[in-house]
UniProtKB/TrEMBL annotation, chain B:
Keyword tags: Cell membrane, Membrane, Sugar transport, Transmembrane, Transmembrane helix, Transport
Homology family: Belongs to the binding-protein-dependent transport system permease family.
A Gene Ontology biological process term: transmembrane transport
Pfam entry (one): BPD_transp_1
Topology of this chain in the membrane: Multi-pass membrane protein
Annotated source species: Thermobacillus composti (strain DSM 18247 / JCM 13945 / KWC4)
Domain of life: Bacteria
Name this polypeptide is given: Permease component of ABC-type sugar transporter
Domain ABC transmembrane type-1 positions: 77-289
Compartments in which it is found: Cell membrane
CC per GO annotation: plasma membrane
Record-annotated membrane-spanning stretches: 12-38, 81-102, 114-135, 162-184, 216-236, 268-288
Chief subcellular location: membrane
Amino acid sequence: MMFRRYAGPFFFYVTATAIAVIVMIPFFWMISTSLKSKGALTALPIEWIPKKISFEGYRKVFDVFPFARTILNSAFVSVMTTVVRLAAAAMAAYAFAKMRFRGREVLFAAVLATMMIPQQVTFIPLFLVMKELQLINTFTGLIAPSIFNAFAIFMLRQHMRTVNDAYLDAAVMDGASHRTIFVRLMIPLSAPILATLAVIAFMDAWNDYLWPLVMLTDPNKMTLPLALSKLSGQYATDYNTLMAGSLISIVPIVAVFSPHSNISKPACRWAE
Amino acid sequence: MPHVSKRYGWFAAIGFLLPCLTGLMLFNIIPVAGAFVLSFTDWDGLKPIALQDGVPAFVGLDNYASILGGDEFWRVLRNTAVYIVLYIPLILIASIAAAMLLHRPYRGVSVYRVLFYIPVLTSWVAGALIFKSILSPEYGGVNDLLELFGIKGPGWLYDPHWAIPGIVLASIWKDMGFFALIFLGGLQGIDSSYYEAAKIDGASAWQRFRHITLPLLSPITFFVTVICLIFSFQLFPQVMIMTDGGPHGSTQVMVERIYRYAFSYFKMGYASAFSFILFAIIFLFTWLQLKLQKKWVHYDV
């Protein structure tokens, strides 16, 4: 009897803890390596816990690269990307959900069709467009493409369609303009889905690599992932420096977003 | 009814659609059309375009022919296939197992959910750097742990046979939490009365999993598999950071080649043709998904 009663929880805690430990080992490795001196990196046997704590890596990451600047760049680019993506998507979603105009369905189908085009197909000509517009090495060029995001438009449109037309008609009868309806009614009603999309947009921008890699060559403009990859090109074996930089890039996003681990829910709904 | 007519017509809608349509045009339609045209030229991306002087020169299907006729493309495809064969079964097993655990009603389950999810929040560049360090044959943690079990670890990223498995390891670590939460959503949607009925009939835990959970999870499994296939063809930061395509080209993949041809070798036309071949492959999988979904997927027991 005792066995039957405790077997379930026992199995759960043992397995879940084992998986959690495996998942956490690389992070532990990162923290431990970031606190080693350069000499301790190649010490054998391996020091899982550094014998002597050294902040050499942290000093170096700020010495050899404008890393403080990089953190601010990443924050700025991520916030702007989120704002631009959500604002444009919400406006378009409102038009697709609640306004009637000729060709609406065809246009919406075209928007959805772009989801099949991977970024890896468009980045070369997109780079050329940006070069033509003289936006290489600018934040504007880095952020501008986020003005169109089919997934965000789709999610918001699905949500806004569920808003009862009676609210809108009542607002129109009171003389409200589209702008008023959009700002005062639709945006507040879409707050939960906007929050989820904001988390996704921010993370996308914070962690993006390919587009910054193509767009930015000026170290003063670089975002965190790009700066890390440049550092790893120059100091390939200075893992204390690289791990210090990685840790700095991970901590803010984990601190802010780990309570919101339900963000893959929309992807789930998308699957159905 | 003038108040209702306010909601009709292009004139009202255009203001709301303008940012999105500009983006659609400038950052999607023009680039795709541009890439398509470029893929038939020999443009290097540097010379100013002067069509009357033959810059860039149209070379017809030459780019496509030389990609498909060369060894490199097939090597890249084989590398991707090796990745897929290892990655997809492992990620399905890992994320379904994690989801089954997270579905249990025990205390502290939300803590595990957050822990499983932290790698998803990590950028690929940071994740790849961590794995490059921990997979170091001599000074890395993975081989050190393997030694505890008496296993002599391989050279990982320095060994042509073990470089892709090393990247797969990093990818599983990074993606498991993401797909686990998608599967968790699927598990939460399964009616518990099925399990109760099966228990009364004396079905074992494995039988319940095999005959209730797996079939009812199949729409999600199918979706995840297709997404994983598409992601596998888009493999990029892992390769750039961890191996740079080496050793001996054993980890070269499509996006890495496209990037190299465009921005290191300045063969924009060739790179564009490569990117359209990638597009065709991804398109094929998307189409297959829509086509086969009805056939393979059980929506009911």
